[in-house]
Amino acid sequence: MDPMYAEGELLTIHNAFHQGQYQKVIDFDTSSLSAENALPARVLQLRAQIASGQAEEVLADIEGEDDVPDLAAVKALALYSAGDSDTAVSEVEELAVASPENMTVQVLGGTVLQAAGKSEEALALLTKHSGSLEAVALIVQIHLQQNRTDLALKEVQAARKWAQDSLLVNIAESWVGLGLGGERYQQAFYEFEEMPVCQAVAEIHLGRLPEAEAALQKVMQENPSDIQAISNSIVLYVLSAKDPSELVESLRSKCPEHQFLKDLEEKSALFEQAAAKYSAKAAA
User: Fold this and answer.
1) In which element (H, E) is residue 128 found?
2) pTM of the full structure
3) Contact between residue 110 and residue 119 where contact means Cβ atoms under 8 Å apart
4) pLDDT digits (tens, 9 = 90+) for 187-209
5) Burial of 39 (0-12, 13-18, 19+ CB in 10 A)
6) Closest Cα partner for 176 from 135, 206, 148?
7) CA–CA separation, 6 vs 133, rounded Å?
């Protein structure tokens, strides 16, 4: 069972992480935690650093600790975020064979594999979980990226039966709501009350662009390296007919393997191919 489930002593730091309060997670006092929860708490803090654009610092911090599967998984995630995707994927694939039942390996390994475009491998690893809400949430994200809202909703409904009113299940349900649209946009907005980046995404779906911009700017004022705030600000700038070039470069410097950058590169290449065909006809 997930040590962060229900009323576990990691509940506060766990919730802060998933609400995007990364500095709070980094600063969290872990001295009073039980020995069994010291490592999960450290993993959350390292992940918060990676999400804050500090992948290189994390790699330096855990150097020489590859013998611990949880930290080896953190290393793979940091490597991917730092731009070394090939090594990251290779290490995750090795961990998936050596430690497939480790929850950190499942979640962080699944994150790396999905980011690398290996969705089926990611799902194969994640479905090995035994009561991990993070694994459930990531499975939901993958299904949504596959445009399989039906499977995402089914996953949430199944988790609701045993996780009840868990924060992560509520968040995952709101992600599905954004995919379904309609009145669910407003419902998601309220659910994301303590999550300014997610709430900004809901604002964008609701067409409230100035409100979304205000929320994202506040996040980036507090943490200029917040990767999710930067990537969503790029989308907002495009929708607002503003130049996102500076934000794109900021994202590229902090997380060169971010999925948004991959999608942007792919779409730009397709556009150039299409434009070249018309240019050739015009020249003829």
Assistant:
1) none
2) 0.81
3) no
4) 888 888 878 888 999 999 999 99
5) middle
6) 148
7) 10
